[in-house]
Specification:
Number of domains: 2
CATH topology of the largest domain: FAD/NAD(P)-binding domain
Shape: globular
Number of strands: 28
CATH class of the largest domain: Alpha Beta
CATH superfamily of the largest domain: FAD/NAD(P)-binding domain
Number of helices: 12
GO molecular function, one term: N,N-dimethylaniline monooxygenase activity
Helix content: 25-40%
Family: Belongs to the FAD-binding monooxygenase family.
InterPro entries: FAD-binding_MO, FAD/NAD-bd_sf, Flavin_mOase-like
Keywords: FAD, Flavoprotein, Monooxygenase, NADP, Oxidoreductase
Oligomer: single chain
CATH architecture of the largest domain: 3-Layer(bba) Sandwich
Organism: Tsukamurella pseudospumae
Strand content: 25-35%
Largest sheet: 9 strands, mixed
C-alpha cells in the first residue's frame, strides 16, 4: 500500500448516509465559502438504507421527522421502505449540488489533530493506496453501529443445523425462501419487519415463526397518515411538511412522556391495541407483555398492523422461550417445543461502533473516548474541531442531527468572525458522569464500556428532548455565555467562553 499526499479542505465529513448528506446541506447553506468533501467508505451513498437488503426494510419512524427539516417528504407513506428513502437522499444530493462533493471508496482509517497547525491529518484508504488528507474540521456522520459485523449470540449446536443461518445485516439478495419454514430470532424492529414481509410478494415462505426470549412493545401505526396527507394536499408540500413535522414531534414527545409518567396505563393501552388485532383467545400476556415499562426501550412500529395480520392468517407465529440448542432440523426450546426450520434468521441486533472505527489521536496521543464527555451532544471533551451526530433513542434518530450540524456551522462562522480557529470542549474532571446513551436496549448495554460519557449539567447532558435541544442549539449562539467550550487561535491566544 502506497501513501500519497492529498489536498487540504476546510471540512471533511465522514459518511454519506442520511447524517453526512444532511451535513453537506448545512455546510453549503451556512458556510458557502468553505471547501469540503464527504468521504464514504463504500461505493454508494445511503448508509443503512443501502447496506441492508432484507425483505421489507423500512423506517421505524415517520419520515416527516426522520427526514430533513429543509426538504419536504412528499410521499404519501409516512413509514417508508428503503428504496423510497434512497430516492429521497438522491434528490437531496442533487438539489444541494453534493454529487461532486462525495468521494466514494474513501475509507478513513485514522485522524490525528495537530494543535500547532490547528488541523486534522486523516489517513484514508482509497483504491489500494493510502492517502493523507488534512482538514480544519471533521464531521462524523458515520452512524453508530458496525457495518462489518452484526451481533449474534453463541448458539449451542449451531454447526449441526442443516439449513441456512443468516444475519439480516448480510442478507443474500438471491436468497430463495419460497415455500420454506423460517424462524426469525429476535423481537425488535428488524424481526417485526421481516415476519410479514417473508409472507408477501413473489417469494413467500410457507411459515414464519418469530422466536423471542423477551417480548417487545409493538404498536400498529398507519403507513399512510390521513391528516398528514391532507396537510400536503391543502397547503402544498413545503407547508404541509412543516405542519406534519411539528405534529409528529409533539406526538412523539407526548407518547414518550405519557408512557414514562403513567407506565401501567400505557401498558394497558398497548395491550388492548395488540389484543384486538390478534385471534380471539390469543395468549397476549405470553408473547406481547414485556417485563419492562413502555419506552424503557424503543417501541416497535408495525405499519397497518401487518405483523398482527400475518399472525391472524395462521402463516406466522410467535414463540417466547429460551433456546436450548440448534439441531439438524431446527431449534429446541427450553419448554420442550421444537421449531422446524429450513432457514434461521438471527435478527439479534447490532454492534455499536462510533466514528466508523476511525482511530482518533490528538498531538500523537490516542484518544480514549470512554474518558471523554460529550458537550452539547456534538463535541467530545479534549477533541478539538470535531463534531459527531448522535440522535434520539426515544424519537426519530435523525431529528436531532440537523440541529447539531446547524449549531456547529454557526459556531464555525462565529469563530471565523473572531479570527479563532480551534474549539475544544473542556470538562471539569470532578464532574459526575454516566454513559452517553442511558438506554436499556441490548446493543447499548453491550457497549456501555466503549461509550463516551455525559454529565449532569445542561451543556454536558445528552438531552433526549427535541424541545430542550431546540432551545439549547437553535437559539442565537452567544459565546459569552457558552460553558465549557474553549476557543483559541493557532497563535494560542486563548479565549475561554
Amino acid at each position: 500500500m502506497t501513501n500519497t499526499t492529498g489536498e487540504h479542505l476546510d471540512i471533511i465529513v465522514i459518511g454519506a448516509g442520511i447524517s453526512g448528506i444532511g451535513a453537506g446541506h448545512y455546510i453549503t447553506d451556512e458556510l458557502p465559502s468553505k471547501s469540503f468533501a464527504i468521504l464514504e467508505g463504500r461505493a454508494t451513498f445511503g448508509g443503512t438504507w443501502d447496506l441492508f437488503k432484507y425483505p421489507g426494510i423500512r423506517s421505524d419512524s415517520d419520515l416527516h421527522t426522520f427526514g430533513y427539516e429543509f426538504k419536504p417528504w412528499e410521499s404519501k407513506d409516512s413509514i417508508a421502505d428503503a428504496h423510497k428513502i434512497i430516492d429521497y437522499l438522491r434528490e437531496t444530493i442533487e438539489e444541494n449540488d453534493l454529487t461532486d462533493k462525495i468521494r466514494y471508496n474513501h475509507k478513513v482509517l485514522s485522524a490525528d489533530w495537530s494543535s500547532e497547525d490547528a488541523r486534522w491529518t486523516l489517513q484514508v484508504e482509497r483504491d489500494g493506496e493510502q492517502v493523507a488528507m488534512t482538514a480544519s474540521w471533521v464531521f462524523f456522520g458515520s452512524g453508530y453501529y458496525d457495518y462489518e459485523q452484526g451481533f449474534t449470540p453463541e448458539f449451542t449446536g449451531r454447526e449441526t443445523f442443516a439449513g441456512q443461518i443468516i444475519h439480516p445485516q448480510f442478507w443474500p439478495e438471491d436468497l430463495d425462501y419460497t415455500g420454506k419454514k423460517v424462524v426469525v430470532i429476535g423481537s425488535g424492529a428488524t424481526a417485526v419487519t421481516l415476519v410479514p414481509s417473508l409472507l408477501t410478494g413473489a417469494k413467500r415462505a410457507s411459515h414464519v415463526t418469530m422466536l423471542q426470549r423477551t417480548p417487545s412493545y409493538i404498536m400498529p401505526v398507519p403507513k399512510q397518515d390521513p391528516l398528514t396527507n391532507l396537510f400536503h394536499r391543502a397547503f402544498g408540500h413545503k407547508i404541509g411538511h412543516g405542519l406534519s413535522r411539528k405534529r409528529f414531534i409533539w406526538q412523539q414527545r407526548g407518547v414518550y412522556v405519557f408512557a414514562q409518567r403513567f407506565p401501567d396505563l400505557a401498558r394497558k393501552i398497548i395491550r388492548k391495541e395488540n389484543a384486538k388485532r390478534l385471534p380471539e383467545g390469543y395468549p397476549v400476556d405470553v408473547h406481547f407483555n414485556p417485563p419492562y415499562n413502555p419506552w424503557d426501550q424503543r417501541l416497535c412500529a408495525v405499519p397497518d398492523g401487518d405483523l398482527f395480520k400475518a399472525i391472524r392468517s395462521g402463516d406466522a407465529a410467535v414463540a417466547t422461550d429460551k433456546i436450548v440448542t440448534f439441531d439438524e432440523t431446527g431449534i429446541e426450546l427450553a419448554g420442550g417445543e421444537h421449531l422446524d426450520a429450513d432457514i434461521i434468521v438471527t435478527a439479534t441486533g447490532l454492534k455499536l461502533k462510533l466514528f466508523g472505527g476511525v482511530q482518533l489521536s490528538v498531538d500523537g496521543r490516542p484518544v480514549d473516548v470512554t474518558e471523554s464527555v460529550i458537550h452539547r451532544g456534538a463535541m467530545l471533551s479534549g477533541v478539538p474541531n470535531a463534531a459527531l451526530a448522535i440522535g434520539y433513542t426515544n424519537s426519530s434518530w435523525t431529528l436531532k442531527v440537523g440541529m447539531l450540524w446547524k449549531y456547529i456551522t454557526t459556531l464555525i462562522g462565529t469563530m471565523d468572525e473572531r479570527g479563532l480557529d480551534t474549539a475544544v470542549a473542556v470538562a471539569d474532571p470532578d464532574m459526575p458522569t454516566r454513559p452517553a446513551l442511558d438506554f436499556e436496549a441490548g446493543y447499548v448495554q453491550r457497549a456501555l464500556n466503549e461509550l463516551p460519557r455525559q454529565g449532569e449539567a445542561d451543556d454536558w447532558r445528552m438531552s433526549m428532548s427535541y424541545f430542550e435541544d431546540a432551545k439549547r442549539l437553535n437559539s442565537e449562539l452567544s459565546l459569552g455565555e457558552e460553558s465549557g467550550l474553549r476557543l483559541t487561535s493557532s497563535a494560542h491566544a486563548k479565549v475561554t467562553v
